[in-house]
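Backbone-to-sequence.
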């Protein structure tokens, strides 16, 4: 829900509020408005027991204006605890699957808020923060928003390191190396609930991820650079599987507070992508980069990122890279897996080298894939603001907002060169020959090809 084009309508139903009156209010709202229908706790048991009332409420979902649906959100005020009957929990979950794209976890697993306003806050956290500020007139609700929702975002905007920074230990999920913390939370990552209008940006690490994210964000906001400075890139487009520290929100937690449509990021190989993305037939943009430049960039990223596994020397890292013993696994399996998947799903497969060579042509592909219609001057603006040198100096995209204890840009900047062919400055003749031999074997039998230089 874009704040500029949609409005949040909050309807609080009292004990004596007639269902028919709620429907009358709902019918008066334009189709592009989203309705947040809130029931107090004393009203909820009666509501659950009344099948007729339930049908009347759900009928609000069928209201149409100009061929578009209204989107009422049904929110019972419930304090869920062990004394709540399983039937009640199941009922709330079934409502929730209708009311929210995010599935039953939103209410069923919600924290136990202290006041009704806290419950409203939790629901409002599904909408963008500006919407909360603009449409929440109640002082009680505003106070709650300041206590809970805004701190979630502020934690990401103002990351403070008050813990000992150490490099992550590595474990595996189905043979794919991930951080130990990611593995420990894997069940919840696998259960992540995608929404039909989600856009997923998928890449192998250091393959043009941030570049693609910024291109997409500018397209979605029609070249408005100020809107694209609303937050750092990692907050605008959450990294769904990532874990940084217990004191900070998980990527999927940030995603769950976002309104639709969401743009999300992953480095997961295709077989580890949460199944809900396929079930919901989400659009996915995959970007691949040639293996040699990718290896070099990934090595320098390990050096500057103080929580990534120890890279060792360039020679040692290259051997691990060739063997697929780095986070997110084998580059070969990654690019080939996604290449195969594009034939069966809504996947736009792009190449880093193509974007570098002809950004206009490749960005137009993204615009078409996203079903946008932008004027040429907007396209020119997007091309300009996604140039490497521009992005390198953009604090909302260059990760300089992350404390140096975590990302040490003095060792190597996050945005280092952004070039094609820089591998020639790192590979020895012997390393190049060994790499080529291995590459030929692992890429045999696929139609996927890469350019190592332009």
């Amino acid at each position: 829900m874009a704040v500029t084009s949609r409005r949040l309508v909050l309807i609080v139903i009292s004990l004596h509020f007639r269902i028919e009156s709620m429907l009358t209010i709902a019918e008066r709202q334009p189709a592009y408005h989203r309705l947040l229908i809130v029931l107090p706790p004393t009203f909820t048991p009666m509501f659950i027991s009344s099948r007729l009332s339930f049908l009347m409420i759900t009928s609000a979902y069928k209201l149409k204006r100009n061929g578009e649906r209204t989107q009422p959100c049904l929110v019972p005020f419930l304090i869920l605890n062990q004394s709540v009957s399983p039937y009640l929990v199941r009922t709330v979950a079934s409502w929730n699957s209708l009311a929210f794209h995010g599935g039953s976890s939103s209410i069923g697993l919600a924290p136990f808020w202290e006041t009704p306003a806290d419950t409203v806050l939790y629901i409002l956290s599904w909408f963008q923060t500006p919407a909360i500020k603009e449409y929440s007139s109640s002082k009680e609700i505003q106070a709650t928003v300041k206590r809970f929702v805004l701190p979630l975002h502020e934690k990401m905007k103002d990351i403070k390191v008050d813990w000992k920074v150490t490099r992550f230990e590595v474990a595996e999920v189905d043979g794919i190396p991930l951080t130990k913390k990611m593995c420990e939370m894997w069940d919840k990552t696998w259960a992540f609930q995608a929404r039909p209008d989600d856009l997923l940006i998928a890449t192998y690490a250091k393959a043009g991820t941030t570049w693609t994210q910024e291109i997409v964000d500018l397209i979605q906001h029609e070249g408005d650079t100020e809107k694209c400075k609303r937050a750092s890139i990692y907050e605008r487009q959450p990294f769904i599987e990532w874990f940084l520290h217990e004191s900070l929100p998980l990527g999927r937690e940030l995603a769950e507070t976002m309104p639709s449509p969401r743009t999300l990021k992953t480095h997961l190989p295709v077989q580890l992508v949460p199944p809900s993305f396929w079930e919901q037939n989400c659009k996915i943009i995959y970007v691949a980069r040639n293996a040699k430049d990718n290896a070099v960039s990934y090595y320098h990223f390990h050096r500057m990122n103080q929580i990534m596994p120890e890279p060792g020397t360039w020679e040692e890292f290259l051997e691990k890279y060739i063997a697929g013993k780095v986070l997110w696994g084998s580059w070969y399996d990654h690019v080939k897996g996604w290449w195969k998947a594009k034939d069966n799903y809504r996947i736009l497969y792009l190449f880093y080298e193509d974007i570098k060579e002809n950004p206009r042509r490749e960005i137009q592909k993204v615009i078409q894939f996203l079903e946008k219609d932008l004027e040429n001057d907007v396209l020119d603006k997007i091309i300009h603001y996604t140039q490497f040198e521009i992005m390198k100096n953009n604090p909302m995209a260059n990760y300089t907002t992350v404390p140096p204890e975590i990302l040490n840009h003095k060792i190597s900047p996050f945005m280092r060169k952004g070039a094609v062919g820089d591998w020639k400055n790192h590979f020895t003749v012997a390393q190049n020959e060994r790499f080529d031999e291995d590459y030929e074997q692992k890429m045999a039998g696929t139609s996927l090809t890469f350019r190592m230089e332009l």
